[in-house]
Amino acid sequence: MSVTPLSSDRSQQDLDRLANLAEEVIRRARAAGASQAEVAASIDTGLNVNVRLGEVETVEHTRDRGFGLTVYFGQRKGSASTADLNPDSLQATLDQACAIARFTEEDPAAGLADAARMATAFPDLDLWHPWAIDTAQAIALGQQIEDAGRAHAGISNSDGASVQMGESLSVYANSHGFVGRERGTRHSLSVSLIAGDDDGMQRDYWYDSVRSADDFMSAKTLGDKAAQRTLARIGARQLTTRQSPVLFAPEIARGLIGHLIGAVSGGALYRRASFLLDHAGKAVMPSWMQIVERPLLKRGQGSGAFDAEGVATADSALIEGGVLARYVLGSYSARKLGLQSTGNAGGIHNLMVEAGAVDQGRDDFAGMLRRLGTGLLVTEVMGQGVNTITGDYSRGAAGFWVENGQIAYPVEEITIAANLRDMYAGIQAVGTDVDPRSHILTGSILVDRMTIAGE
Fold this sequence. Notes:
By secondary structure, this protein is an alpha+beta fold. Helices cover 24% and strands 36% of the residues.
């Protein structure tokens, strides 16, 4: 799958234009009396093609622009945005932001991140890989993926295949003199298939998400994977209510880590809406567990040299020896808590959950099934039954019942429940089967015990 030749790449010129506009608007904001100002500007370009049963359903070309401005008059803040980059629109946006700021209440935590924390090094993180695919080629690729899945005996229908190409350019600048440029690509392929039996229909899917199209799995591999997952669900049954160990597949396990991030993020903490309030420096996971943020990974899904406020990013432990080493903070939440920014304004960067186990072993997926022994493998969760204030976790689920380390049969229409505090403390192992399609990089996670509600 080819990439765009560098000679036709205008991204650097577009970034320069955004940077010049941002610096000019910041100068105007200071001239209008703002004590501080910041701009986030972006251009996003994409192609999205959907095919179903071999026919084209939708073709969408996108080119979106955004220009957001925040001004501070002391500790009064005003923000405004526009999608129009012409001078009159930018001036109107500035006027609106200034007007808002003059009428808002003072907020002691408002303001730019500290000037001394601004990034000064901007390494090439290998995030820019334009994909030279046109509409006809995207349609043909979608058809190949769907055909590969539909070729499997037992697949009776399709919800379609999609091919997406995306390019993003962004600039963040502020009145400290900081100007940060970022460019990245993100491309994806997916297919959803349907299998029927006497007891009803089953649906499943698979997808791939990469920075460079050269890293995609093949169309056949993707179609085969989706078909195999769909066919494996035929004959799914309910379980009787019980307690058992639960193994979360990697693509589901990252959600468990996502709940951890939510609970230790500044917004939840200063609002006192987290079950992990005041837990920094305390054990929240088993002593063998390590979770480290690595923002500078080459081709990482969440890589970046600076956060949404220009603060330099750096490798940093989140969980160290099972202990919560720090919170996840931008400058505003840090000030509210009397702490320092952790370089996480805008979110986390490439969180890596290290593989391991209570007995220091490291297992692939087959090994994790053997470790599970007899219990539930979860491959799908549904619903929003997670309360980050109390830690209560209750979600609809589907997957497979496992006996003696081997998948026995598919299950559906069950609910799994526990408290996240107990789930984290009860983690028995993390697999080496890491799912690379996210900025949360984890293998499967085995939890010692949960309640399964079924028949």
